[in-house]
Design a protein that fits this description.
heterodimer, B: alpha+beta, Penicillin amidase (Acylase) alpha subunit, N-terminal domain, six-stranded antiparallel beta sheet, 26 helices
């Protein structure tokens, strides 16, 4: 693994930590912001969107896992599913939650990379 | 090769013009696509869409709805409340029953407010919003009609008046302020720790600070649920369609059947009212007006208009008790919800030593006991709603009404109703001297409702809870207005009592059971003197009881309402009286058994008559089986009883067989179900004592007797049951058709309990009317002063959080008819498994 790759993975790891800290502080939209910062580094979506999604997923999944370890999520997931009209399919709120976190990170990265790509294209005329 | 170089960069120079243009457009299309998708994701994250909450705010794991998992865990705590003067200790039993011990009365109510809000804040917010007409603000247009009606009816106006009129020196004032402080302490804490109830998060709003007016609104909600009725409108429609003769015969003032009043008199020397008229015909305009108001009220959600009460309470004197001490039992019947309307607690302070159930949003114990007395209540059912048709002349006196010989201007009050997802609604409410105008379709109609009389009922209840003997208890209740309640009483000296305290509106003349002219002659003039209201103390037979029946006999000299829907038909009261009157001593376990008694008094009267009517019939084998099941039946509505099902079907068909031809021929606009209590009484009385009553010979069916109608109903019901339940009568068990549901307060069906087969029906002491049954014993309490035991149970749990162990943990015990001990704080600590909250200023 080259230095560039190491730098990339370290950057992604630090970005994930930042997003996680934001979510823990109640800034649930932090993965989107971090995704934007990540996306701004590279104009290629296929390079930045997967890590953006991973950052979103991690930033929302870890606190959820912590809640589960501390309190147990069973009754809560069933209750939320009931409130949402999914009867007692407790897995659905978990999936929905992780999906929202993932999408926040992924769309942030995609939006910024697309913006950079468009800017680059405009400058170079390509 | 690095990861970056593995992905080829696009070539810098293109060889063809057309592909170059397409590639030049790609980044722009990519950006547009990213922007659209990002905007969509952000939009659904920040804003509610299509019935879903704002997903980001609602489902993020640290501040969203997932916090209900942490909220469900109750641990030992030390916390600081800004409203406290001294330290307070709260002990929570294994089932969440709260024991609040404070060194000052002020602190007691601060801590009670905190505890209520910790476990029931969303319920409290819904209750105050209902009364204040602010439900649309959180659920949108769907609640707009409810909000408009509540503001018209005047709960908010009355609550504000009550607060404004409360003297600064009144202890209730400090209690309400302290309670509000405690609630707000909890709101502040919950907001800072992100542990507001998940429903706030999912609906996307934050609770406003609690105020004393909010507590008065919650009390107003209960008054409305229990005694705001549309019965005079129903009576007007019946009068118009059936005709005055039939209406007055079928819907009389005094009950047509045999009942068991608890206060047999004598009643003093007051002359019977001369001004109360017999029923007279209504004009078309009056009838049309009644129809308009009736339809408006009928369109409101259940619970806003009282449709008759159903509660039990009774007491047994020490002389008739096995323990030697007085016994008391009470089970108020209400809409059974999750969370329940009740929250169980004990309150210990210099001024209060009460244990029982409270209504979240209000500071005191409503039903329970202290060191010397115990009390419970049922609704007294007297008429507390009167409709007035205002006289107007829009040409000569626009915006005015004629009253007491002069034209007067309506008072107007304006309100703004915020609506989620819509424009704010502006509402102007007109008030005449009688009360708010609730309809202007055709005839302007206003309503006089005792719930609009400013009162200090919460203070009265707190004083009643501090009484130590009958005299103090009775005196405390002198100030009680509405809803009128039958307050049953038993003390540690073996005494028992019952008083139907509250406001008994009296009119000078007219037909108060129908809408009356608003010109002044028919106005409410006052109430019955306190000494003359129904009451009894230490009756000679040592028993006393109420179950919403008419409390007094036909010789009572005041008008208090008619048999039609204001009072219960009396079957539960008759059964309770029958059981308590049996020879021998009674025990607490007898009280418990009577609370879950499924003996249908009406069935015990009618089924023998039916069997006699069928005795000479040629029966099919299936019919013979049915008759045999009825013959062997003990008249108990038990889950495994087929006869119970047959009886229920039969009486429904019997009522239909007798009355439906009249309904069709006279085009009666009121559903028979709406007035089934009265029709049941009529049919009972005629079947037993007047089997050739003209009602059996309806237009189109020819001349016939009660027995003919019974036989017809019997033969017609069988195909219906067979269609519903199969051909074998032995398989027609009651549990297959009679289910019970405890409904989630926020109407989330997935958080309901049930449906579950249950015993009882609408006429048994274990009240369980309707299919499925959603009303019933909301709190059962049994007190035995001889052994010093206090027991109680309500269906539900202390917490509104569905993820909590205390959401519905008491339901199975309640279904089984068992009771939990009502412990003191010391007993709770000794029992173990407690959590303790040390509260500091």
């Amino acid at each position: 693994m080259g230095h560039a790759a190491v730098r990339r993975y370290v950057a992604i790891f630090l970005a994930a930590l930042l997003a996680l800290a934001g979510v823990l502080l109640g800034l649930w939209w932090a993965p989107f912001v971090i995704g934007v910062a990540l996306g701004a580094l590279d104009r290629r979506a296929r390079i930045v969107v997967p890590p953006g999604a991973a950052i979103g997923l991690i930033a929302w999944a870890i606190p959820l896992a912590a809640v589960h370890i501390q309190y147990g999520l069973g009754p809560t997931t069933r209750s939320l599913a009931a409130i949402m009209g999914f009867d007692h399919q407790g897995v659905l709120p978990v999936v929905l939650t992780l999906l929202v976190g993932t999408l926040l990170g992924a769309t942030g990265a995609w939006l910024a990379s697309a913006g950079r790509s468009a800017l680059t294209s405009a400058r170079t005329g390509t | 090769m690095t990861a970056e170089s593995a992905i080829a960069e696009p070539p810098a120079v293109m060889t063809a013009v057309a592909p170059r243009r397409r590639r030049a457009k790609l980044p722009l299309l990519n950006l547009v696509g990213a922007a659209i998708v990002s905007a969509a994701v952000l939009y659904v994250s920040f804003f509610p869409v299509a019935g879903l909450p704002a997903l980001g705010a609602a489902f993020n794991p640290t501040t969203g709805a997932w916090t209900m998992a942490a909220d469900a865990q109750v641990t030992d705590r030390m916390l600081h409340l800004s409203g406290l003067q001294q330290p307070v200790r709260v002990v929570l039993e294994k089932d969440g029953t709260a024991h609040v011990t404070a060194r000052t009365d002020h602190d007691l109510f601060v801590a009670t407010g905190y505890v209520h809000a910790k476990f029931r804040l969303f319920q409290m917010d819904l209750l105050r919003r209902q009364g204040a007409g602010r439900l649309s603000e959180i659920v949108g247009k769907v609640a707009l009609d409810t909000d408009r009606f509540e503001l018209q009816l005047g709960l908010l106006r009355t609550a504000e008046l009550e607060w404004a009129q409360l003297p600064a020196s009144d202890p209730l004032r400090d209690a309400l302020l302290a309670y509000a402080q405690g609630v707000n302490d909890r709101i502040t804490e919950a907001e800072s720790t992100h542990q507001l109830d998940a429903m706030f998060t999912l609906l996307g709003y934050h609770p406003q600070p609690w105020t004393p007016v909010d507590s008065l609104l919650v009390k107003g909600d209960m008054t409305q649920t229990l005694n705001f009725t549309d019965t005079p409108l129903v009576m007007a429609l019946l009068n118009k369609s059936l005709g005055t003769d039939l209406a007055s015969e079928w819907f009389p003032i005094l009950p047509p059947n045999q009942q068991a009043p608890y206060d047999p008199g004598p009643y003093g020397k007051v002359e019977p009212p001369q001004g109360i008229a017999t029923m007279t015909a209504m004009t078309d305009a009056q009838s049309a007006s009644a129809q308009a108001v009736y339809e408006r009220l009928a369109a409101l959600p259940a619970g806003l208009v009282s449709k008759g009460g159903a509660s039990n309470n009774w007491a047994v004197a020490g002389a008739k008790s096995a323990s030697g001490g007085a016994l008391l039992a009470g089970d108020p019947h209400l809409h059974l919800t999750l969370p329940a309307i009740w929250f169980q607690l004990t309150q210990e302070s210099p001024g209060f030593h009460t244990s029982g159930v409270s209504i979240p949003g209000t500071p005191g114990v409503l039903i329970g006991h202290n060191q010397h007395i115990a009390w419970s209540l049922t609704d007294a059912q007297n008429q507390q709603t009167f409709f007035y048709m205002e006289k107007e002349d829009s040409k000569t006196h626009p915006g005015m009404y004629f009253w007491n010989g002069a034209w007067r201007k309506y008072i107007t009050v304006s309100y703004q109703i915020p609506v989620l997802g819509g424009a704010t609604e502006h509402l102007t409410v007109k008030w005449s001297v009688h009360g708010p105008v609730i309809s202007e379709r055709g005839q302007t109609t206003s309503v006089w409702w005792s719930g609009n009389l400013p009162s200090q009922d919460l203070g009265v209840l707190m004083n009643a809870g501090r009484a130590s003997n009958w005299q103090e208890f009775r005196e405390a209740l002198r100030g009680w207005y509405s809803p009128t309640h039958n307050f049953v009483y038993a003390d540690d000296k073996g005494n028992i009592g019952l008083i139907s305290a509250g406001y008994y509106p009296q009119v000078a003349k007219g037909q108060p059971w129908m809408p009356m002219p608003g010109t002044g002659e028919y106005d409410v003039t006052g109430t019955i003197p306190y000494d003359d209201i129904p009451q009894a103390y230490n009756p000679p037979d040592g028993i006393i009881w109420s179950a919403n029946q008419r409390q007094v006999t036909s010789s009572y000299p005041y008008y208090i309402g008619t048999a039609s829907n204001f009072f219960d038909p009396g079957y539960r009261a008759n059964e309770i009286h029958r059981v308590l009157s049996q020879p021998g001593k009674l025990s607490a376990s007898d009280m418990q058994a009577l609370q879950t008694d499924t003996h249908d008094f009406l069935a015990s009267e009618i089924v023998p008559v039916l069997l006699q009517s069928l005795s000479k019939e040629q029966l099919t084998p299936q019919e013979s089986t049915i008759v045999q099941l009825l013959r062997n039946w003990d008249f108990r509505m038990e889950i495994n009883s087929s006869a119970a099902t047959i009886w229920s079907y039969f009486y429904g068909w019997y009522v239909y067989e007798v009355f439906n031809p009249w309904w069709k021929s006279r085009a009666v606009p009121v559903e028979m179900q709406e007035i089934s209590d009265t029709l049941d009484q009529d049919l009972e009385a005629w079947t037993l004592h007047d089997p050739s009553n003209r009602a059996f010979s309806a237009p189109g069916v020819g001349s016939r007797s009660a027995a003919d109608a019974q036989r017809a109903a019997f033969h017609k019901m069988i195909p219906q049951i067979a269609k519903d339940l199969g051909k074998d009568p032995n398989s027609w068990t009651w549990g297959r058709v009679h289910l019970r549901v405890l409904e989630n307060l926020a109407e989330v069906k997935g958080l309901n309990y049930g449906p579950r087969p249950d015993r009882g029906d609408g006429r048994t002491p274990l009240a369980a009317g309707d299919y499925p049954s959603t009303h019933g014993p909301s709190w059962r309490m049994v007190v035995d002063w001889g052994s010093g035991t206090f027991q109680g149970i309500y269906p539900g749990g202390q917490s509104e959080n569905p993820a909590s162990d205390w959401y519905m943990d008491r339901v199975d015990t309640w279904f089984a008819g068992r009771l939990n001990p009502m412990l003191t704080a010391e007993q709770a600590v000794a029992a173990g498994g407690i959590r303790t909250w040390d509260m500091r200023p």
